[in-house]
Amino acid sequence: MSTLLEVSGVSVSFDGFRAINNLSFRIADAEMRAVIGPNGAGKTTFMDIVTGKTKPDEGRVLWGEKSVSLLKMSEAKIAQAGVGRKFQKPTVFEDQSVQENLLMALKKPRGWFPVLSYRPSDEDLAKVATLADDIGLGDALLRKSGELSHGQKQWLEIGILLAQEPRLLLVDEPAAGMTPEEREKTTDILVEAAKTRAVVVVEHDMEFVRRLNCKVTVLHEGSVLAEGSLDHVTSNQDVIDVYLGR
Amino acid sequence: MNRSFVARNPSVLIFLALLALFTLGVTILSEGFGVGMISTSFVKTLGKTLCLCLVAVAMDLIWGYAGILSLGHFAFFGLGGYMIGMWLMYERTRLIVVDALAQGSMPPTPQEVVDGIGNQIFGVVGSSEFPAVWAFADSLTLQLALVVLVPGLLALVFGWLAFRSRVTGVYLSILTQAMTLALALYLFQNDSGLRGNNGLSGLQNLPGVTASQDVVSMWFFWGSALALGLGYLLAAWVVSGKFGSVIRGIRDNEARVRFLGYSVEAYKLALFTLTACIAGIAGALYYPQAGIINPAEIAPIASIYLAVWVAIGGRGRLYGAVIGAAVVSLLSSWFTGGQAPDIPLGFYTVKWVDWWLVLLGLSFVGVTLFAPQGIGGLVDLISDRLRPDRHGADLGPDQGSLREKEARK
């Protein structure tokens, strides 16, 4: 397995506060990774850096086989390169239907000119319908996504990510506010997705992380505290001190 | 989903049909081509109103759909008017000058003609030289192209600078106000080359046309109706597909659209430029009907009125913008034209000429607070009737989705 994303020696400060401190992280193609850590450990900032929202003060972020630097690219370009991101709070376009949400995300030319004359082909519509089935929204295609429940919005956002066909999925607390059954379904969707692409899940809930059954990275004060299987990191004394013990 | 454009947007067909009926009705009642029940000056008012509706459609695209509250679109409207006004004024003056010189013993040289025109046009600002901006004024084709190109280019440069630095929200609105104010102040100067505060006048006379104003006003009325119809169709087409999805997404959550891989700045810039071009065309049809254009027309307040029209009509729906512009501007000319009866209160007489702005301000506040959907929202009352009655049950297929009552808000 080759490295898909390599973050090395990255630091960033906000008004003197070091949110990320010499962080290094690497993930391979088709790998699932859980990132855990206490509040303020830099999990969201880490995602901001990878997706181009925040520019680090120092360090490198390299992408793909050709090791392209992501630091000089805009958010849109990074997304086109194959990084998809799901926010903590479900952010779907509430004023638009599930179908419109998914069609917008489908991997197609992103420039304004081709989009202007784009009309969905039968193939695109079929693809959207299959996706909607996968995320359990098959019979809600024409509903406004604002009408959906919280859990369904979370799935729709995951569906939007999948429609983008990204090579790396960054998922921020996908199970927040979900019922136990919804969590289980979310796990299934993510595990399925990780078979063909890299998935990074930021999560607080240990039970959820356990079900993902993957390598875990523990962040603390902006750098990696421990890395390994869940059992390995939970038995690490440092991790117990800063995170689990509290 | 894959049904035809009209089937997916029935309101477009209804709008075009109503517009055609209205045009036909006015034609039949006009002095130029019909029974003469509508005076020529009122035909001009109606024609101008159609142009205002067109610029309101442009405003709705940029504000109602993309969420960019531009308070500078009347700058583009005015520039379109100036561009066509330059040709109208040049050509008409040329005919007069050529006529006058033909009285002399010697046939005039081309230079004498040009000097004569310059004297006639710029005498009022104490000059007779043609400024560089009038270089193409002798060519109708070029000036018509400039009607679209000049506002488009200004919007492109301004938008590129503003959107690239990610200026959004109220800061962008202030920037657009500054743009239109700066342009107005520049044009007020005599040496700006567009006759300062005198502006361009006599635009209602088409050079070389002997037909009466009764007829010419109808030509412009038809032209305005056609432009509004085509502009509406274009706007509806732009927002109906994925482009519409993306710009509505930008309005609701710009960052999310960016992470989907769309370059938000490019979309904003494309739409801003397109709406500026539409505004330019609307202005080019408006000012020949108004007869005069001066820099006061692009004062910041004009663009604010535009936003008020769209808000009152209902933003985010194209017909709302048209309704708002038509209703408010017609009411405005009724109230300020002295036709509205004064209200004597005994101790004070309410004169609508003075009080109309207060009424307009109050209705703007009222609409914003109590009916954010605007007048166009009334259409929802009808379509609501046609919607299935869920007896207050959940709308979504799952627990936790909005209940019917909540979704109404």
Characterise the protein shown here:
The complex is a heterodimer of chains A (246) and B (409). Chain A is of the alpha/beta class and 246 residues long. Chain A has a single domain (3-244), classed as Rossmann fold. Chain A is 37% helix and 26% strand. Chain A contains 10 helices and 10 strands. Chain A has helices spanning 43-51, 75-81, 98-105, 112-116, 122-134, 150-163, 180-193, 206-212, 230-234, 237-244, and strands at residues 3-14, 17-28, 32-36, 58-63, 68-69, 83-86, 168-172, 198-202, 215-220, 223-228. In chain A, the strands form 2 sheets. A 6-stranded mixed beta sheet of chain A has the order 6-7-8-3-9-10, with helices on both faces. In chain A, strands 2-1-4-5 form a 4-stranded antiparallel beta sheet, covered by helices on one side. The longest helix of chain A has 14 residues, at 150-163. Chain A is globular and about 55 Å long. The model of chain A has no long low-confidence stretch (mean pLDDT 88). With 409 residues, chain B is mainly α. In chain B, 67% of the residues lie in helices and 2% in strands. Chain B has helices at residues 5-8, 10-29, 40-65, 73-102, 110-122, 140-164, 169-188, 213-240, 242-252, 254-259, 264-290, 300-313, 318-336, 352-370, 378-386, 404-407, and strands at residues 200-201, 292-293, 343-344, 349-350. The longest helix of chain B has 30 residues, at 73-102. The chains are: A alpha/beta (246), B mainly alpha (409). The A-B interface holds A 51, 53, 74-77, 79-80, 84-85, 87, 91, 93-96, 99-100, 103-105, 110-113, 115-120, 122, 125, 139-140, 143, 146-152, 160, 164 and B 1-2, 238, 241-243, 245-246, 248-249, 252-253, 255-256, 258-264, 266-267, 270, 395-402, 407.
Throw out a few tags for this protein.
A: six-stranded mixed sheet, four-stranded antiparallel sheet, B: 409 residues, mainly alpha, two-stranded antiparallel ribbon, two-stranded antiparallel sheet, 2% strand
